[in-house]
Structure formats: structure tokens, C-alpha cells
């Protein structure tokens, strides 16, 4: 319609306005992009820190498991040592019974029967007193 040189001021102003509107839009867009980039960066950092926390948790769990396994091994070792001690004690008791059992039988007083007359101790299997010859009543 109008040649360029003779563009009316109103239209020029309109164009300038439109241009500045577009420019504002571009600035806004740039701001939004920057903002998005900022949030993306923050999210990425959060992800990284979360991953690091997870790794730290996993490491802590592994360490706890190792500690528990060590504790279990120690506990088992103690239990085994205790069992061996009991076994040794049992063997010792059996050994003593086998070797000193006869002695203890000898030391043990044989069952006796006291004579009514002279009070002498006689074997329960005897029929007469070995001291006075009195008949022993069973
Ligand atoms: Zn007697």
C-alpha cells in the first residue's frame, strides 16, 4: 500500500511496538529458558546428591552386614570353644570315672551289719558275727 519511505508514523510506531513486544517475548522466553536451565541444574544436583546418599546408605548397609558377619563368626567361635571345653570336661570326667572309679568303690564303705551283742561291724552277707560268733539277724 504505502512505499517504505512514506510509511506513516502511526504504523511505524505500531511496528516498533510490535517489535518491542516480540523483543519482550524473546526476553521472557530467554528468562524462562534460563529458569528452566536453573531448575534442571538443581534437579540434576538433587539427583546427584540423592544418588550419593543412596550409595552412602548401600555402603553403610554393606559395612553393617560385614560387621554383623564378623560378630556372628566371633559368636560362633565362642560357642565352638565352649562346646570343646564341655567335651573336654566330659572326657575328663569319664577318664576320672574310669581310672579312679575302682578306688572310689574301695574307699566307699561296704554295707555292714552291726552285731546286736558286741556291736562289731560285719559284712551283710555273713550269717554269724566275726567277733563273737553271735548269729546275725538280717
Ligand atoms: Zn558280735
| Distance N to C terminus | 156 Å
Mean pLDDT: 85
N-to-C SSE series?
A: HEE
Q: What is the beta-strand fraction?
A: under 5%
Give the overall silhouette: rod-shaped
Structure description:
About 70% of the residues lie in helices and about 5% in strands. The protein is mainly α. The protein folds into two domains: about 5-105; about 110-138. Strand 1 (about 110-115) and strand 2 (about 120-125) form a beta hairpin.
Short summary:
This protein is mainly alpha-helical.
What are the defining features of this structure?
138 residues; mainly alpha; 2 domains; two-stranded antiparallel sheet; 1 helix; 2 strands; rod-shaped; binds zinc ion
Secondary-structure map with pairings?
Elements: H1 9-107, E1 112-114, E2 121-123
Antiparallel strand pairs: 1-2
